[in-house]
């Protein structure tokens, strides 16, 4: 799966920001039709986003759009206009059951058939941001083979359950961790919450590192200044890569010789440690920090 370390939202009605976003080297750029767009500019945002996908080059960045929630009344037009502009994938917000995913998938299939694109090629990322979504994580994760990632939305989730947001984030830790666990269980990526205070680089780094430690593959961001630090936090550093390479190399020798548990640098290594090291190397590879066969 591709790297999605920083996923940058850009308000869909803001052409200046959209043009800016294409040169920022974020792994993923998401042109937003939902909460970043006022209700009276939804139609304008749709055509702006469609125009952006057909006329701008986003380089290596993944081209995503976030449609409005299924059931909001905006979703049919969002899909009709933006789907035809052939985004790489769509983010569906406020997913609370498999139905929203299946409905979107069916709509996309008819666009893909009409346009002679391969059916299933436009993939989906499901935003989990209410209590129902958390409770129904497994049906959402397996609702369609189009689903590649589960994204956690903290602000909507907190509002839904009546939590009060705190800097430490204990109030969202259960839901945040659940998203990681279900994503892993179904072979999907997990993408962490937004850090809203874009003038606080220190706080951002702490939260991004915390997300990587929990098992997230990336984080949503809302400002250009957040991209670099976030991408770094979700990329294994040189020391981590060296240690993982050591472990995997030693494992080759020791497992061959019949030892399931052995020592590397005075620390016990067994199967889970080897698997974790392989995950580190996989992450380094998708981030381009390691040869594919290295
Ligand atoms: N994508 C692309 N460019 C962005 C950007 C974004 N998300 N946020 C800011 N920029 C640009 C600005 O246009 C500005 O460029 P300019 O100087 O060439 O005009 C530059 O980066 C610096 O921006 P700054 O002045 O610091 O911020 P701002 O006051 O223009 O915008 C926000 C602040 C929060 C309104 C803006 O960052 C934003 O809209 N973020 C996304 C919000 C969103 O999508 N929310 C829904 C999903 S949670
Ligand atoms: Mg939201």
State the main characteristics.
294 residues; alpha/beta; TIM Barrel; 2 domains; 8-stranded parallel barrel; 10 strands; 16% strand; binds magnesium ion
Structure description:
There is one protein chain. This protein has twelve helices and ten strands. It is an alpha/beta fold and 294 residues long. It has two domains: 228 residues, TIM Barrel (Alpha-Beta Barrel); 49 residues, no CATH class. An eight-stranded parallel barrel has the order 1-2-3-4-5-6-7-8, surrounded by six helices. α2 packs parallel to α3. The protein is globular and about 65 Å long. The relative contact order is 0.10. The site of coenzyme A has 15 residues, from β1 and α1.
- Counted by DSSP, the helix tally is 12
Helix fraction?
Answer: 40-55%
- State the CATH class of the largest domain: Alpha Beta
Order of helices and strands: EHEHEHEHEHHEHHEHEHHEEH
Short summary of the structure?
The protein is of the alpha/beta class.
What are the SSEs and their pairings?
Elements lengths: L5 E6 L3 H7 L6 E5 L9 H14 L6 E5 L8 H9 L5 E4 L5 H18 L7 E6 L2 H5 L1 H5 L5 E6 L1 H8 L8 H16 L3 E4 L8 H14 L3 E4 L5 H7 L4 H19 L5 E3 L2 E3 L1 H16 L8
Parallel strand pairs: 1-2, 1-8, 2-3, 3-4, 4-5, 5-6, 6-7, 7-8
Antiparallel strand pairs: 9-10
Helix pairs in contact: 2-3, 11-12
């Amino acid at each position: 799966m591709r790297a999605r370390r920083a996923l940058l939202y850009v308000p869909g009605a803001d052409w200046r920001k959209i043009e800016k976003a294409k040169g920022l080297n974020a792994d993923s750029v998401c042109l937003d039709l939902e909460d970043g767009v006022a209700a009276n500019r939804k139609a304008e945002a749709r055509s702006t986003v469609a125009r952006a996908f057909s006329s701008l080059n986003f380089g290596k960045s993944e081209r995503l759009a976030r449609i409005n929630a299924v059931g909001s009344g905006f979703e049919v037009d969002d899909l009709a206009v933006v789907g035809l502009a052939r985004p790489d994938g769509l983010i569906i917000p406020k997913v609370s059951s498999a139905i929203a995913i299946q409905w979107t998938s069916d709509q996309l299939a008819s666009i893909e058939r009409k346009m002679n694109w391969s059916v299933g090629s436009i993939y989906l990322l499901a935003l989990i941001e209410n209590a129902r979504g958390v409770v129904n994580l497994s049906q959402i994760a397996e609702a369609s083979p189009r689903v590649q990632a589960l994204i956690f939305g903290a602000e909507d989730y907190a509002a839904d359950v009546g939590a009060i947001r705190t800097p430490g984030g204990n109030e969202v830790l259960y839901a945040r961790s659940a998203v990681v666990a279900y994503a892993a269980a179904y072979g999907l990526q997990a993408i962490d919450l937004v850090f809203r205070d874009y003038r606080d680089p220190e706080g951002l780094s702490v939260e991004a590192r915390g997300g990587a430690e929990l098992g997230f593959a990336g984080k949503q961001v809302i400002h250009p200044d957040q991209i670099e630090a976030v991408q770094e936090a979700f990329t294994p550093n040189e020391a981590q890569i060296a240690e993982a390479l050591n472990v995997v190399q030693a494992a080759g020798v020791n497992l061959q010789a019949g030892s399931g548990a052995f020592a590397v640098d005075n620390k016990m290594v067994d199967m889970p440690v080897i698997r974790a090291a392989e995950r580190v190397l996989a992450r380094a590879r998708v981030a381009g920090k390691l040869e594919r066969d290295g």
